[in-house]
């Protein structure tokens, strides 16, 4: 069940963290999504050097990964595992995050994602595993 751009943006806007980060859907296709995030002063980790907190980069990767899965599943997916490589500092600029599902199974999906600066230089890369099974059916 694929989601339209409008459906993806509406769902993303309901996510409190994504709304606070002012994330927007740039484009999406089956198994792929590109999100954008404007710079926010609250993202700063080191006020002397003015670079972005690593948790913000990880959140961007995780959110884009979940919504890349949503393009196939019809809803954002819950993170099961996540690895992040911080490649270089992110300084004051709008950010783009691209995510692509490269394995989609009955229970799990695996996604690769990258956070890019306006020059399309990778700042962080991540690989995430998401739950695709309906977790509500296993609750007791």
TrEMBL record:
Span of domain Thioesterase: 51-120
A Pfam family hit: 4HBT
A GO MF label: fatty acyl-CoA hydrolase activity
InterPro entries the record matches: ACOT13 (IPR039298), HotDog_dom_sf (IPR029069), PAAI_dom (IPR003736), Thioestr_dom (IPR006683)
Record key words, sorted: Hydrolase
Keyword Disulfide bond among record annotations: no
Superkingdom classification of source: Bacteria
Family, as annotated: Belongs to the thioesterase PaaI family.
NCBIfam families for this protein: unchar_dom_1 (TIGR00369)
Protein name per its UniProtKB record: Uncharacterized domain 1-containing protein
Organism: Bradyrhizobium canariense
């Amino acid at each position: 069940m694929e989601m339209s751009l409008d459906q993806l943006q509406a769902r993303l806007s309901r996510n409190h963290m994504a709304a606070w980060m002012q994330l927007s859907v740039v484009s999406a296709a089956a198994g792929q999504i590109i999100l954008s995030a404007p710079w926010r002063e609250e993202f700063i980790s080191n006020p002397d050097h003015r670079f972005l907190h690593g948790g913000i980069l990880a959140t961007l990767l995780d959110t884009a990964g979940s919504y890349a899965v949503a393009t196939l599943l019809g809803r954002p997916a819950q993170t099961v595992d996540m690895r992040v490589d911080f490649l270089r500092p992110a300084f004051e600029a709008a950010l783009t995050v691209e995510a692509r599902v490269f394995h989609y199974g009955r229970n799990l999906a695996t996604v690769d994602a990258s956070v890019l600066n306006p020059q399309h230089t990778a700042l962080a890369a991540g690989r995430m595993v998401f739950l695709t099974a309906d977790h509500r059916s296993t609750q007791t």
